[in-house]
Design a protein that fits this description.
The protein is of the alpha+beta class. The protein folds into 2 domains: about 120 residues, Nucleotidyltransferase, domain 5, CATH 3.30.420; about 80 residues, ATPase, nucleotide binding domain (Nucleotidyltransferase, domain 5), CATH 3.30.420.40. The chain is built from 6 helices and 16 strands. Strands 2, 3, 4, 5, 12 and 13 form a 6-stranded mixed β-sheet that branches. A 4-stranded mixed β-sheet has the order 1-16-15-14, covered by helices on one side. Strand 6 and strand 7 form a beta hairpin.
Length: about 260
């Protein structure tokens, strides 16, 4: 499946099945045997793995659920994730972090930072004088950056994947919103580096949805262009993406299916 980008946009799907086709293509070039994908939404994340004998499988969390809340609770020397962290939020919301992805790669004077502070007054944000970004302040000695929090979440994702795959996992594909700028994408890469993960690909989530749709409907794609409209209603926004599917003739492989992202709104 070839991909041609026309217009970028934003989509936050709740599933990460769509990345598996890409993982299958990339996993042969990686050192580890198992590869995972992470779809990190505003409220939930989903994890999947590819390994020999397992073309694609969604990873279940410790509650045997297919999706996990994106939440971290930091209390003294204890770290809680997912549903356990949400339980802590009721008692101590100041140490339970959610929606921190909104602050990735953003300077302290960014309007989104001010909006975040207004929406979540329980958090104390301070300026990182060196990077000019923001930090979550827990005490005079203890602060965490959004990248560190995301790194913790990715590390937790890997622990779930490794338990499910019964082998080490080092490689990952991560979906990101299509509207993410370079600073935000670098922040995601930094978070993965902090969790000692090798990022094979950052893929725009609206492109991933379109790729997933096309992979499972290859027989329906022919020389006649087909326009498909996708609606994704996430926890924070509703996004529409228009995609064109068509088989085109290539020099090396003959007729191959192709998708074009026509527009996003």
């Amino acid at each position: 499946m070839m991909i041609v980008h026309k217009v970028s946009g934003n989509m936050r799907p709740l599933v990460c099945v769509f990345t598996m086709f890409l993982l299958a293509l990339l996993s042969s070039n990686t050192e580890s045997v198992a590869v995972m994908s992470v779809d990190m939404g505003s409220e939930w994340m989903k994890i999947a793995i590819v390994k020999p004998g397992v073309p694609m499988e969604i990873v279940l969390n410790k509650e045997s659920r297919r999706k996990t809340p994106v939440a971290i609770a930091l209390k003294e020397n204890e770290r809680l994730f997912g549903d356990s962290a949400l339980g802590m939020a009721v008692k101590n919301p100041k140490v339970t972090f959610r929606y921190f992805q909104d602050l990735l790669g953003k300077r302290a004077d960014n309007p989104h930072v001010k909006a975040f502070e207004a929406r979540f007054p329980e958090y104390q944000l301070v300026k990182d004088e060196h990077r000019e970004t923001v930090l979550f302040k827990l005490s005079e000695e203890l602060t965490y950056s959004p990248e560190e929090l995301l790194g913790m979440m990715l590390n937790y994702s890997r622990s779930l994947a490794e338990e499910f795959a019964e082998q080490p996992v080092k490689d990952v594909v991560i979906t990101v919103p299509a509207f993410f700028n370079q600073a935000e994408r670098r922040a995601v890469l930094q978070a993965a580096q902090l969790s000692d993960l090798k990022v094979l690909q950052l893929i725009n989530d609206n492109t991933a949805v379109a790729l997933n749709y096309g992979v499972f409907r290859r027989k329906d794609i022919n020389a006649t262009a087909q326009n498909i409209m996708f609606y994704e209603m996430g926890s924070r926004s509703t996004i529409c993406t228009i995609v064109t599917y068509q088989s085109v003739k290539t020099k090396d492989s003959g007729m191959q299916p192709q998708l074009q992202i026509r527009g996003v709104g």
